[in-house]
Amino acid sequence: MKFSENWLRTFVNPPLASREFAEALTMSGVEVELVEPVAPAFDNVVVAEVLEVQKHSAADRLSVCSVNAGGAPLQVVCGAPNVRAGIRVPLARIGARLPGIEIRQAKVRGVESNGMLCSARELGLADDASGLLLLPADAPPGTDIREYLDLDDHLFTIKPTPNRGDCLSVFGFAREAAAVTGSALTPAPTAAVQAASSDRIEIALEDKTACPRYCGRIVRGVNARAATPRWMVQRLERSGLRSISAIVDVTNYVMLELGQPLHAFDLARIDGAIRVRRGRSGEQLKLLNEQEIALGASLLVIADDTKPLALAGIMGGMESAVTPDTRDILLESAFFDPAAIAGKSRVLGFGSDSAYRFERGVDFAATAQALERATRLVLDICGGTAGPVCEATARLPERKPVRLRRARAQRLVGIEFTAQQVADILRRLGFAFDAQGDEFLVTPPSYRFDFAIEEDLIEEVARIHGYDRIPANPPVAAAAMLPATETRISINALRGLMVARDYQEIVSYSFVDRQWEIDFCANRDPVALANPIAAHLSVMRSGLIASLVDCLKLNLSRQHERVRLFETGRCFWRADAGYGQVTMLGGLAYGEAVPEQWGVTGRKVDFYDVKSDVEAVVAPGIARFEAAQHPALHPGRSAKVILEGGAIGWLGELHPRLQQEYDLPYAPMVFELNFDKIRARNVPVYREVSRQPLVRRDLSVEVPETANAQAMLDALRKYAQRHVSEVALFDVYRGKGIDSDKKSIAFKVLLQDTDKTLTDADVEATIGQMLQVLQEQFQARLRK
Q1: Strand partners, 627
Q2: Tell me: the pLDDT tens digits for 513-551?
Q3: What is the C-alpha to C-alpha distance for residues 699 and 707, in angstroms, rounded to an integer?
Q4: Helices 18-27 & 170-181, crossing angle to 10 degrees?
Q5: Which secondary structure element, helix H or strand E, spans residue 254, and what is its range?
Q6: Which residues make beta-bridge pairs with 559?
Q7: How many beta carbons lie within 10 A of that of residue 607, not counting itself?
Q8: How crowded is residue 72: how many other Cβ atoms within 10 Å of its Cβ?
Q9: What is the dihedral of CA 344, 347, 352, 356, to 10 degrees?
Q10: What phi, psi does 274 have (nearest 5°)?
């Protein structure tokens, strides 16, 4: 919610500067998210009346104006298309400093100009530069424009938590500010308006649980075409609402001021009584946003004897809306149970300021007072004759007293409170209470729905006392270092390893779009949320690849061409006994294999680059990679990751279909590993370092194209003699000199004995035995 600081200070005006004021409220738990001036800094700009306008003799688009700025007439050259005699506009005098410009005396095409007539853009008030900023006809010439337009003001943007619906109004926030700062609070202007006619309307509460209070008042003979006062338009605009018409502006203004949404019906469009009921099957209602919706029993409506008039607590209907020709109106003010309104905006696909307040709870005791305030404003602006307030009431929310013990507050907060301190804080909050020694029986006010237990009151005491005044006393206790096992790697150590390998960590929602689950996991039955916070966050993820790709797209939109991302997080799926979950590690690499530099030729990251990252993650374990199909990966460039005989995850290039669907210039390399299966580590075992020389032999063989290199490595390692210290693949060749259905594979073999120097005969015998294994199992032939 956003509103004017000057408006707020009409109710409470502590001796604090704007930012100090905002800081005090934020530290109390009601966040002031942003404080910004309503206008940039400028000076020496006054109201001026244009007395006479003549064409410039040397320029068709320029005019020479004579203006009254509170003294002798001044000559000003102006190029605005809307300049004319009789209007009042801002004049920047000579020496004025505007945003990005300083006004000096100058000649424009040979004609002297003593200042500049200004548009809203030149003053930094708006982006419109199509013409001069027109001021009201009664604006007094010579008045400082900052004073006249109240530009030495700030906008407060607040972000109260969902349980603090009482702060969603200027007066409600002022009430909170008075409690926090200890300043006096000016009462809300809700004096009763005496009825001048006997016109009444019948009200029937057909759903008394959803709407336990409804107030209505007929006002006849209004002038719906009356102009909204400038002060009201200004306050509405600074709160982010545009002026529509005087009557609609009044209802919006009272909502912002007191937190009570209201609505005005054209009385001529109402047939009979007002009925608050559930929607009926087959009923249609066209709303003020021009959207037509089908009603049903899940929606609460305001209706008359023949038709629905409005969607209760959310939006009025188009048919009964006030128009410029309206003469008689019905003002309504109601209290709706938050449960009857909550979630409806999400179902309907649109929200409103009214629904935002009703679903958080409004003050059910102030329903009639808000109606009185709106009536007074309508009569003052639009005229007319008001009838009596008609009210229908059922069972309102019960405010049960809550016990507060001073000793309990001291124990939870950690500081000592006197009974007088607690009583003073409760009075500042406006809470009624009965003190009995060190215990207080507190009755929550009608505007606070967030009190149910003693701890709620203790939180209020701590908050108003000041969180920053609670000392940070470290606990004193015997501490012992916890054992750190060598056989398991921690999640933090794994994160450090990924960062060391040039990856950056992301944290994404566990809630994802249902389409992501279909695209990336082929999961058409994901775990669905009963009450999702948004339509695109409706299911629980069963994999991390989609979130990584989404983050990649965000980085590409910010022109990052080389991206390395990883995430650790839980994934979820349906299981026989209900639901399952596991912690996963996901990674993505996109762009150049190494950062651009003069010493290395640029190339795109490939399967083997990321394969080395996966091998580093599972080390000292040795991962094996088997070709396999995954719905999110390229059919010919994907592999299942095997560790100690069991599958632990996937590695591969993103599927071309997904690359095209998600508009990626290149396909990234991705992997996903089960953290619970890779966190185990073997304890290092000492092995004697040989003093004997190392012998290397390269074994190059020609095998059928279908031969698996990993299987060949496994076979060589299995049958290798004791003095073979390492076998590694270092080359695969296809091309000239090799049959088209064959390929050449070369292995590096390192031999070393701890007891003796190996002879040529020993080496040749070992290599011969290894070659025989390849010949028998893989039809290998030694390349000459």
Answers
A1: 639
A2: 999 999 999 999 899 998 888 888 899 999 999 999 999
A3: 16
A4: 80
A5: helix 246-258
A6: none
A7: 15
A8: 6
A9: 50
A10: -90, 130
